[in-house]
Target: SHOCT domain-containing protein
Amino acid sequence: MNIKRVMIVGTMVIVMSFGGTALSGSIISASPVAKWSSTGFTEKDDLLDALNQSSDEELYDSLYEGKSLHDIAADQGRDITNVIELQMKQLTQQLDDRLRSGSITAAQYAAHKAELKEIVEQSVFTSFGNQEVHKDRSAIH
Model:
């Protein structure tokens, strides 16, 4: 299991959950998971590097213990803004690919893109192990 894909899927679940009424029709009918398998992730795992994790298993274990990405980054002395920028870059690339392929319209692209940063920032503070959301977001501003 590729933890980067798990995190992207988790982020996309958040996008689908909080996408708003303007996006609901397009997101629900989209199939981003199928597209992710063809995006050609490189062997170097930028997420593991950003979080100073040695393996997918180490990151998975931390997430399973209830830590958020923010918690993991803080424990490793890493800056969470790097993780946010990485996820923004990857999700923007996926949106670009979907726009190019015609699976979303320019209006849908703009709406997704407008909400992306807030959703990614919220996701790094979410602990998927116990669904707790951290209240202190000042670390990223």
In short: The chain has eight helices and two strands. The first strand starts at residue 126 and ends at 127. The CA atoms of residues 39 and 94 lie 8 Å apart.
